[in-house]
Design brief:
10 helices, globular, about 260 residues, Arc Repressor Mutant, subunit A, 3 strands, mainly alpha, three-stranded antiparallel β-sheet
């Protein structure tokens, strides 16, 4: 059995434990316990309840969720693989903090991947797919009209994840999910800036309309430019100078 880390848990963990957080674990009959534990910790990290740099105490998390330490340990390993936490030998588990310079690199990679996704969807999207994507954008527009950052953020994550899923490349989907996990705190802070939600919603609407029109180059460019704009918003939110312009790969001439 691993040694108990004597360091105090993050206040969000201890507060939830005191409030009887054991009720968080339900549906055990149909789900793996480590998976449920991982999902709850991931939710807390993405929601900002456990900020970057927070130390996660295995004992406190187990008590909060009403489980033994084994599932928590497995959940920590899975979260490390997904890029949300880091395990430091003899020190413990910490919520990962990504520096702006690394976030820039992730955004640049995302811009390339998203351009590919946009092109793919413009070639293969069905009328049913377009209806679904328009409905998702409408949900974002509704959240933007109410200035509901939390609802918009969740809808935004689901929208982009669904786009990559619809592109039909499993390896790309796994890579994309890891990248967005590492950016989650930056993305939430970027969207919280005054006036950002309507602008972001318009960018998403433009993406869907280019996909609907069957315009691969236009859809790819809209996806790429949206990621670049998101990176600029991240820089403003963090108080950093504007990022260097992202270079798009040259368009290929049709054969």
């Amino acid at each position: 059995m691993a040694a108990v880390d004597p360091a105090p848990a993050h206040p969000a963990v201890t507060a939830k434990a005191a409030a009887g957080g054991a009720d968080k674990i339900a549906l055990l009959q149909s789900n793996s316990l480590p998976t449920l534990v991982r999902q709850e910790i991931e939710r807390m990290i993405v929601a900002g309840e456990l900020p970057g740099g927070s130390k996660l105490n295995e004992v406190a998390v187990a008590a909060m969720l009403g489980v033994s330490r084994g599932p928590v340990r497995e959940a920590f390993r899975a979260l490390e693989m997904s890029g949300l936490v880091r395990l430091e030998k003899n020190r413990g588990v910490f919520v990962r903090r990504v520096p702006v310079e690394e976030a820039d690199e992730i955004y640049e990679l995302r811009a390339v991947l998203d351009e590919f996704v946009g092109r793919q969807l413009a070639r293969r999207a069905t009328p049913e797919t377009v209806r679904e994507l328009r409905a998702r954008v409408e949900a974002m527009e509704d959240a933007a009209s109410r200035a509901d950052v939390g609802a918009y953020y969740r809808a935004n994550l689901e929208f982009h994840d669904r786009l990559v899923e619809l592109a039909g490349n499993t390896k790309l989907l796994l890579l994309y999910r890891r990248l967005v996990n590492e950016l989650h705190l930056f993305r939430h802070a970027s969207l919280a800036q005054a006036g950002t939600l309507p602008v972001s919603a318009r960018e998403h609407r433009a993406i869907v309309e280019r996909i609907a029109a069957g315009r691969p180059a236009g859809a790819g460019r809209a996806m790429h430019d949206h990621v670049v704009a998101s990176r600029e918003r991240m820089h403003r939110a963090e108080g950093h100078p504007p990022a260097a312009p992202a270079r798009r790969p040259p368009s290929r001439k049709p054969r």
